[in-house]
Amino acid sequence: MPAAWADTLTREEKTAFMRANVKPRLLKAFQAVDAAKYGSFGCKSCHGPQMKTTKEHLPVLTMKGGELTAFKERPQVAKWMAEKVVPEMNVAMGRKDAPDDPRGSKGCGTCHAIEVK
Hints:
three-stranded mixed beta sheet; 6 helices; 8% strand; mainly alpha; globular; 3 strands
């Protein structure tokens, strides 16, 4: 198993990597915030029942004036995602070069599509 995610991995390698590295870390992060809601957290939580890419399944975020509107519209969720989920995901994916800004290229836009207005 590779130490870090690579787009060149086969589908089987990607699935095994996600199950071994991503699911356990994110399961803990999501259940820590709401164990009842995320009791059955798994692949479909982020990829949906059709196993789409996360950008196709997760909510589209809006960037306006250089800022993600989620930080004003849903501050608690955005803060939790930025401070807990993004760092956990970066560690799980083996990203050693993750920037401090969770909204950067290894931040929200890694999993969510971002619409710029």
